[in-house]
Every structure is written in C-alpha cells, then in structure tokens.
Amino acid sequence: MDLFDLTGRVAVITGGNGGLGLGMARGLVKAGANVAIWARNEEKNAKALLELQSIGRAEVKTLICDVAEETQIEDAMGATLDTFGRVDACFANAGRSGSGAGVPDMTEAGWDAVMAVNARGPALTYKHVTRHMIERAKNGDPGGKLIATSSGQSIMGVNRSSDYAASKAAINGLTRGAAFELARHKITANALLFGYYETDITAAADPKFAAWMEKRIPLRRPGDHEGLEGLAVFWASPHSDYITGQCLPVDGGLCIS
After folding, report:
1. I need a labelling partner for 139 at 20 to 30 A (CA). Which of 13, 186, 204, 218 fits?
2. What keywords would UniProt list here (predicted)?
3. CB 94 within 8 A of CB 71
4. Among 249, 173, 178, residue whose Cα is nearest residue 218
C-alpha cells in the first residue's frame, strides 16, 4: 500500500503556476491528486499545465484568478467543481511582496495592495472552498485541508517589510480561527511559515539580501523546491488529520537564529 497515494483527491493551489506553489503542485500530481491552479498569468499557467501533465497521471486544470477579486475566486471555485466535483485540499499560496517602504514612508495604497492579496485573498478563498467542504460534511462526506503559505517574517522583524509581515501575521490568525471553527466538520487548517526560497520575488531583491539570509540560516542554504513536493503531499494526506491550528516554520532554522 502506498501511504501517500492521493488518487481521487482534488487540490486547489492559488498562485500555483510558479515558485512555491508550483513546487507543491508537482508533489500533489506525482501522488495522484487532481490539481486546479488558480493564478493570474495566462502564459505561466500554460507552462505550468504542460509541465504538470508531463509528470503525473492526474488531471490538471488552470484557471485565471486574481485572489484580490472575490468574483474571480467564486468563478474559479465554480469551474473547479464543474471539472472535478469536489475539493479536498486548498493551498492558499498566492502572494506578493511588500511595498518596500519603511514604517515612516508607508502609504494607504501600498498597505492596501499588500493586504488585498496576502491577507484578504486567503480569507476569501477559504470562504468559498469551505462552503463546499461544509456542504459535503452535511451530506455525510466530512473532511478538508486548508494550508496557507505564510512567512517567517510574521514572527520576525525585517527592515522595510512591516506591511508584508503584518499581512502574513494575519494569515496566522486566520489559520487558528479557521481551525477552531471548522473542526466540527473535520476540516483542518494550518500555515507554513516559509523562510528563504529562491523564487521570482526573491530574484527581484537586492543580491546582498540572499547572501545575508544564507549566513543567518543555520542550515546555510535556501529551501529546496524538491522538498516542497513531499511537504504538500503530507499536508493533503490523511496522515496530517490530527494536526490543526498550527503555524509551522519551514525555514532551515532561520527563526531560531
């Protein structure tokens, strides 16, 4: 028996066409899960679709969705259910970088733009996904997994990143509240506080930042994308059923350094 066979399961991954999200999608597809990617960039969606179709036996669907717009979330959820009939796991992964402004230089527009994607987006994604999960539970098919991409910055301080840190701290609070509220339906909620991974966002940062981070990380390296595959499969599988409300650092020990 394959302990981590996800055949017949369906996972949604917001922002799953690149970076951390695509790494997690690879693992889910390899484990047999059908995957719906909700992301904004049509070209990146098409590339991700081709790659995922080539490595797994499961079905993959990509949908244009900006999680800052609730109507797009609602439409993506409807299209996902039309294709797969159910959602068992939701990886609320879509995010954006902060404005790069220090506290004295913050603007209302900059703050709101970060919060719209990083905090409101996961909340509204969970709103529509859990409506479906709760309806399934009422019909005798309880259970569901909510997994949010948070950040170590939600529990640490970094210069000129207070808006980003606050948005990720909001995800941690959302996770704990959702876990408590939804446990009666056998829906779990957890957040992964990722440390330094090489992504499109970090590639745009000052190269000195990467060098500084690697010196500060006890394991002395960025996170490996291959490791994301098994991580995602574990959280989507029944083996994580008794873990809920947790905000787990995945950072090579960065948060203890």
Report:
1. 13
2. Oxidoreductase
3. no
4. 249
Give CA 24 to chain center in angstroms: 9
Q: What are phi and psi of 221, to 5 degrees?
A: -165, 160
Structure tokens belonging to residue 21? 């999200």
Eight-state DSSP code of residue 224: P
Give the residue-averaged pLDDT of 156-180. 95
CB-based burial, 39-66: b 16+ in 10 Å, e otherwise: bbeeebbeebbebbeeebebebbbbebb
Model confidence pLDDT, tens digit, residues 80-91: 999 999 999 999
Residue 60's nearest CA partner among 71, 124, 39 is 39
The answer to whether 164 is a known catalytic residue is yes
| Cβ atoms of residues 186 and 144 within 8 Å | yes
In the structure encoding, which two tokens stand for residue 257, read together? 């350094």
Q: In the chain, what are the domains?
A: 10-256 (3.40.50.720)
Report angle CA 249, 35, 226 to the nearest 5 degrees.
45
How many CB atoms lie under 10 A from the CB of residue 132?
17
Q: Which residue has the tokens 């068992």?
A: 88
The reported pTM is 0.95
DSSP 3-state assignment of 193?
Answer: strand
Active-site annotation holder among 164, 196, 197, 242:
164
Residue 44: DSSP 8-state: H
How far apart are the C-alpha atoms of 51 and 70, rounded to whole Å?
Answer: 28
Q: What is the Cα–Cα distance from 80 to 64, expressed in whole angstroms?
A: 12
pLDDT of residue 1: 46
pLDDT at 158: 82
Q: Residue 223: helix, strand or coil by DSSP?
A: strand
